[in-house]
UniProtKB/TrEMBL annotation:
It catalyses: 4-amino-5-aminomethyl-2-methylpyrimidine + H2O = 4-amino-5-hydroxymethyl-2-methylpyrimidine + NH4(+); thiamine + H2O = 5-(2-hydroxyethyl)-4-methylthiazole + 4-amino-5-hydroxymethyl-2-methylpyrimidine + H(+). Signal peptide: none annotated. GO terms for molecular function: thiaminase activity. This is Aminopyrimidine aminohydrolase. Residues 10-217 form the Thiaminase-2/PQQC domain. Homotetramer. Keywords: Hydrolase, Thiamine biosynthesis. It is an enzyme of class 3 (hydrolase). It comes from Vagococcus intermedius.
Amino acid sequence: MSFSRSLKNKAQTIWEAGYHHPFVQELGQGTLKKERFQFYLKQDYLYLLDYTKVYALGAVKCKDEELLQRFVEIQHSILTTELALHRQYMKQFDIDFNELKTTPTSLFNRTYTANMLAVGQTGDLAEILATILPCAWTYYDYAMGLKEKYADQLEENFYKSWIEMYANADFLESFSWFFDTLDTLVENKSVIEKQRIEAIFTASVEFEYLFWEMSYQQNLGILHK
Ligand SMILES: Cc1ncc(C[n+]2csc(CCO)c2C)c(N)n1
């Protein structure tokens, strides 16, 4: 198995814990409390705006035109397609879009994006790919798992469009690009450098787990009750 494809196995314990987190499982069953999803939606919107900036930092470091195109394309698709679905859900929940301007970004959310932005600033392209890859990969993996596990309940599930957006086969094509690009970028790296990349990847998988936990607890930070 190639270096990039084996990264999931390196983070297996926390990867599986994320899938079994009550937020994820209840989303799959359609039983997740609306307040928890509302909290998630607002925090995730704020998260995604920062997340797209990591692609911009990657774009600055691209020496190859095709790579540059990809970074900018993915950034654009998040800013359009993915955020559009979030806005649609906000409408269903009567969340005024302007509310986002006064919603504090939770302490943990800031920690996660600050970590990715730091890798974006100081890392090379392989490290940048390693920090952003778990975001796309865990979502695809979890959404595919939920779609299959709760197939007989999917039609009545309030969160069906969320699951279907992330269990989208189009992602597969982008994954082969992610995997192949990362494998090429690590070709001449030492064992120590590769270990650093694995640690960056695993940290993002852990951050993803904690994002579910934060949303389930609706935890803005220790000073907010
Ligand atoms: C906390 C958090 N992590 C990951 C995603 C999912 N996601 C973000 S961008 C993207 C597409 C390509 O990178 C996907 C699948 C999210 N919404 N929120």
